[in-house]
Each structure stands twice: as structure tokens, then as C-alpha cells.
Amino acid sequence: MAITKRTEEDKIEVVGEFKMIQVRTATIIEEDGVELSRSFHRHVVAPDSDSSGESADVKAMVAQFHTDAVKKAYADHLKSVLRRLVLRKIQNSGYHYHFVIGVNVIKKVIATDFILTFCNYWTICVL
């Protein structure tokens, strides 16, 4: 009666204008070769992502689909979107609504020469 746990990338697909590579990894629990459970984890490899830690299959797809033209188009798209972001305090009926911005967004905002205006609360909205 041996219980084993294994993982496998059971689905890799390319989606959208910027050729996002979606990877689904299955975690499979088996007892004596009979599957007891299966759960899934997904992640996306974008054109500006570091793919060095990915499997050989994903790296091959990155090489095929993340061309220089796709990378440039994606970078231009991010720059366009990030220029429309405004940091501001939003008030509605006395409540402050805050949207979380991650470190990567801040780095990209700074990289696109977007001028940050600091206020009492870090909030973000799209114009």
C-alpha cells in the first residue's frame, strides 16, 4: 500500500494578443497506482517574464511565441496602460477605497517615466 504524490504539467496553452503562455500543473495523489485525488495550480508566463525556471516544454514555447515583436508590443501596451494610472485618495460616503499596487507595478511605472504624486493613502484608479 504505497501512497505517492506526483506533479505534471498537463496543459500548456498560448492565449491572446501578447501570446501569454498559461501553464496548468496537476498534483496527483495515488495509492497503488490508483488515483485518489487531483488538484490544479495555474500560472502565466508573460512576454516580460523570466522563464529560466520553467520546464523544457514551456521554454520551447517561450522561444517560439515570445518574439522580439511580441515583447515590444507587450511593453508598449504596459506603458500605455500605466500612463493612465493615477495615484489618489478616493472618497465615497466618508470611506476610503484602496486598490493594492504591487512592487512590480511601481517599478514599471517608474520605468515609464510616470510621475508619482504621493498622498495620504496609496490608492490607484484607472482613468
Quick gist of this model?
By secondary structure, the protein is an alpha+beta fold. It has helices at residues 56-65, 68-83, 103-111, and strands at residues 3-15, 20-31, 34-45, 85-87, 91-92, 95-96, 124-126. 28% of the residues lie in helices and 37% in strands.
Structure description:
With 127 residues, the chain is an alpha+beta fold. The protein folds into two domains: 1-72, no CATH class; 81-127, no CATH class. The chain has helices at residues 56-65, 68-83, 103-111, and strands at 3-15, 20-31, 34-45, 85-87, 91-92, 95-96, 124-126. The chain has a three-stranded antiparallel sheet with strand order 1-2-3. A two-stranded antiparallel sheet has the order 4-7. A two-stranded antiparallel ribbon has the order 5-6. A hairpin with a 2-residue loop joins strand 2 (20-31) and strand 3 (34-45). The longest helix is centred in the middle third of the chain and has 16 residues, at 68-83. The N and C termini lie far apart (60 Å).
